[in-house]
Design goal:
There is one protein chain. 58% of the residues lie in helices and 4% in strands. With 286 residues, it is mainly alpha-helical. A two-stranded antiparallel sheet has the order 1-2. Helix 3 packs parallel to helix 4 and helix 4 runs antiparallel to helix 6.
Length: 286
């Protein structure tokens, strides 16, 4: 075979290799174009559990986690106009409320746990349109969580009004701070409904008082009246009481008769008698 033919074959093979590589590159490029886009990684610690979740609330599409909190705080977020953020603010209030309430409930359920624990700043919140990732500052969430721990633990075992007032004021002040930062007015203090989730057990004194009242209501006989501390009177005591009443009536009659005689005997009393009675008195013989 001549050198010319060998060169031709070599060039053809080289062209085939180049064409094959070109076609492979084009196929890979087309495949990437039709690949589903991966969710944007927020790049924050503790986000691994949410990486596979795509927020279902289309109203906040593109806003989630720390980015959503920053936008509600008035910080400029790339790709979102300030007027759009202002329109979303009323829809953010239920998300904020649910995040705070859920953190407090976690503290109630974990009563007696580690008070130094800091709850996660991220929480998946359900909305009427789907789901969304909410982020709140950990220091604020920690105050709410520890208040719930103390309410369900120390306070439940020894309830005192001073402790309850302190816990309520702590929660309300933290919640008000969060609402102020996002520019939303808090209409109802959270202490009015958060601290009603766990009924406070009855104290020992209250139980003893209730037991005493029950015993009083149940004991009958031996001269005691039902639902009363008064003793039932005996027949002898009733007869003696009637005698006292009769003597009192006799004494009243004697006093009335004495007053009548005194009015007739003294002239100054005559002026007080009615005219008809005065003429009748003068007509009588002396």
């Amino acid at each position: 075979m001549s050198n010319f033919m060998m060169n031709m074959i070599s060039w053809v093979l080289l062209l085939l290799v180049i064409l094959t590589l070109y076609l492979i590159d084009k196929i890979n490029h087309l495949a990437k174009m039709y690949e589903a886009p991966k969710p944007e990684a927020p790049g924050m610690p503790g986000m691994s559990e949410f990486e596979a979740d795509i927020p279902g609330d289309l109203l906040f599409s593109g806003l989630e986690g720390k980015k959503l909190w920053d936008a509600m705080n008035g910080k400029q977020v790339e790709g979102f106009d300030a007027s759009l953020i202002e329109a979303l603010r009323p829809h953010y209030e239920p998300i904020l409320r649910e995040h705070i309430t859920s953190t407090f409930k976690d503290g109630l359920e974990e009563a007696g746990g580690d008070e130094s624990k800091v709850p996660s700043s991220l929480r998946k919140i359900s909305t009427v349109r789907g789901f969304i990732q909410s982020w709140l500052p950990p220091q604020h969430l920690g105050s709410i969580y520890r208040s719930a721990l103390e309410f369900a633990g120390t306070y439940a075992n020894d309830p005192t009004p001073e402790v309850l007032l302190r816990l309520q004021q702590t929660v309300d002040s933290v919640v008000d701070m969060l609402y102020q930062r996002v520019g939303i007015t808090n209409e109802v203090p959270f202490s009015e409904f958060l601290f009603e989730d766990m009924p406070v057990p009855e104290t020992e004194d209250a139980m003893l008082a209730l037991t005493d009242e029950s015993r009083k209501a149940e004991v009958l006989g031996n001269g005691l009246l039902e639902d009363s501390d008064e003793r039932e009177l005996t027949p002898e005591e009733l007869a003696q009481g009637r005698e006292h009443a009769q003597a009192y009536e006799d004494e009243l009659r004697q006093e009335v008769a004495a007053e009548t005689v005194e009015a007739v005997m003294h002239p100054e009393a005559v002026a007080e008698v009615l005219p008809e009675e005065a003429h009748a008195a003068e007509a009588k013989p002396a």
